[in-house]
Known about the structure:
alpha/beta, seven-stranded mixed β-sheet, 7 strands, elongated
Amino acid sequence: MHVTRVAHDAERTASRGGFAALLFALACAAQASDIVLEIDPASIVTPDLEAPAPLVEVNDIRETVALERTTIGEVSLGAIEVVPPLPQLVGTIVSARAAGMPFQSGAGEDPPVIYCDLRRFSIETPATLLYWDIKSRIDVVLRVGDRDREVSASAKARTWVYPSKTLLEQVTREALLDLSEKVEPALAELLSAPPVEDEEAAAEAGTETEPQP
């Protein structure tokens, strides 16, 4: 009898929890709306307009685009749009960080082209009955010549109130600031590395000058 009572109590608790979760989701869904996040690139990085900057080409190769507010049960609260577009934001950051960096090029004095593959840029709001976690993650691959470097950046915040536009902009900006800091050492390494042809030529020259036994 005791076991049966516990089982009934557990079912009653689960039922109340499920009902509360449903009410929570419905209440949030009633506030659902698409939003536009406005991110000023100058708030992330300020380019040196007098410094020569390599050309940056951004390829958006994201397989999925996770830009949406959600609540319990993955109920959608509306789409998220970022202005300027995410590839443009990322390209601006990479270009500004590369400006003025010393570089070596195998094709004259012109700065080399920096290719940037945008693999992921997500803004998500997984929820529980008590709070939302606002998460933003950015994954890119930087490539100069035959060399490449992967860079990942992220930001996260927890809120016990509705995930507002202000909070979403704050977390997204923090993820972009993290990206700005992390691409700098990767770019410095890629731009200062000698071209592959020069490395091979140096290796061959070293081999030819070695004394024969």
